[in-house]
Specification:
Layout lengths: L8 H18 L8 H23 L3 H22 L3
Helix pairs in contact: 1-2, 1-3, 2-3
Amino acid sequence: MPSEDDSDPSVASVLRDLDALRSRLDHAPTWLRDGETTVSAAGLAEEVRRLCEQAASDRNPSTAASSLAKARKCLQHLHRLLGVH
Protein backbone atom coordinates (compact mmCIF):
# COMPACT_ATOMS: atom_id res chain seq x y z
CA MET A 1 0.00 0.00 0.00
CA PRO A 2 1.32 3.47 -0.80
CA SER A 3 2.43 5.73 2.03
CA GLU A 4 -0.09 8.13 3.57
CA ASP A 5 1.45 10.96 1.52
CA ASP A 6 0.70 9.14 -1.75
CA SER A 7 -2.85 8.14 -0.81
CA ASP A 8 -5.94 9.85 -2.09
CA PRO A 9 -7.35 11.90 0.82
CA SER A 10 -10.66 10.07 0.40
CA VAL A 11 -8.94 6.72 0.84
CA ALA A 12 -7.14 8.01 3.93
CA SER A 13 -10.46 9.25 5.32
CA VAL A 14 -12.14 5.87 4.88
CA LEU A 15 -9.17 4.11 6.48
CA ARG A 16 -9.27 6.53 9.44
CA ASP A 17 -12.99 5.78 9.88
CA LEU A 18 -12.23 2.06 9.79
CA ASP A 19 -9.45 2.44 12.37
CA ALA A 20 -11.76 4.45 14.64
CA LEU A 21 -14.45 1.78 14.36
CA ARG A 22 -11.91 -0.96 15.12
CA SER A 23 -10.78 1.00 18.18
CA ARG A 24 -14.38 1.16 19.43
CA LEU A 25 -14.69 -2.59 18.86
CA ASP A 26 -11.61 -3.20 21.01
CA HIS A 27 -13.45 -1.56 23.91
CA ALA A 28 -16.82 -3.25 23.39
CA PRO A 29 -16.67 -6.89 24.54
CA THR A 30 -20.46 -7.27 24.31
CA TRP A 31 -20.20 -7.27 20.51
CA LEU A 32 -17.80 -10.17 20.74
CA ARG A 33 -20.41 -12.43 22.37
CA ASP A 34 -22.28 -12.84 19.11
CA GLY A 35 -19.99 -14.96 16.92
CA GLU A 36 -21.91 -14.26 13.71
CA THR A 37 -21.68 -10.50 14.20
CA THR A 38 -17.98 -10.76 15.05
CA VAL A 39 -17.19 -12.78 11.92
CA SER A 40 -19.28 -10.49 9.72
CA ALA A 41 -17.64 -7.39 11.19
CA ALA A 42 -14.15 -8.81 10.67
CA GLY A 43 -14.97 -9.72 7.07
CA LEU A 44 -16.39 -6.28 6.30
CA ALA A 45 -13.43 -4.54 7.91
CA GLU A 46 -11.03 -6.60 5.82
CA GLU A 47 -13.02 -5.84 2.65
CA VAL A 48 -12.90 -2.09 3.40
CA ARG A 49 -9.12 -2.29 3.84
CA ARG A 50 -8.68 -4.30 0.63
CA LEU A 51 -10.85 -1.93 -1.40
CA CYS A 52 -8.96 1.09 -0.05
CA GLU A 53 -5.64 -0.48 -0.99
CA GLN A 54 -7.03 -1.20 -4.45
CA ALA A 55 -8.29 2.38 -4.84
CA ALA A 56 -5.01 3.87 -3.62
CA SER A 57 -2.93 1.87 -6.09
CA ASP A 58 -5.25 2.17 -9.08
CA ARG A 59 -4.02 4.57 -11.80
CA ASN A 60 -7.48 4.79 -13.41
CA PRO A 61 -9.52 7.45 -11.57
CA SER A 62 -12.82 5.86 -12.55
CA THR A 63 -12.04 2.40 -11.18
CA ALA A 64 -10.35 3.92 -8.12
CA ALA A 65 -13.51 5.90 -7.39
CA SER A 66 -15.59 2.75 -7.84
CA SER A 67 -13.42 0.84 -5.35
CA LEU A 68 -13.65 3.71 -2.88
CA ALA A 69 -17.44 3.86 -3.23
CA LYS A 70 -17.63 0.13 -2.51
CA ALA A 71 -15.38 0.61 0.53
CA ARG A 72 -17.63 3.35 1.88
CA LYS A 73 -20.70 1.18 1.35
CA CYS A 74 -19.04 -1.69 3.26
CA LEU A 75 -18.05 0.72 6.03
CA GLN A 76 -21.65 1.97 6.30
CA HIS A 77 -22.85 -1.63 6.48
CA LEU A 78 -20.30 -2.30 9.23
CA HIS A 79 -21.58 0.70 11.20
CA ARG A 80 -25.17 -0.54 10.87
CA LEU A 81 -24.20 -4.10 11.82
CA LEU A 82 -22.58 -2.87 15.00
CA GLY A 83 -25.17 -0.21 15.76
CA VAL A 84 -22.64 2.61 15.56
CA HIS A 85 -24.44 4.97 13.19
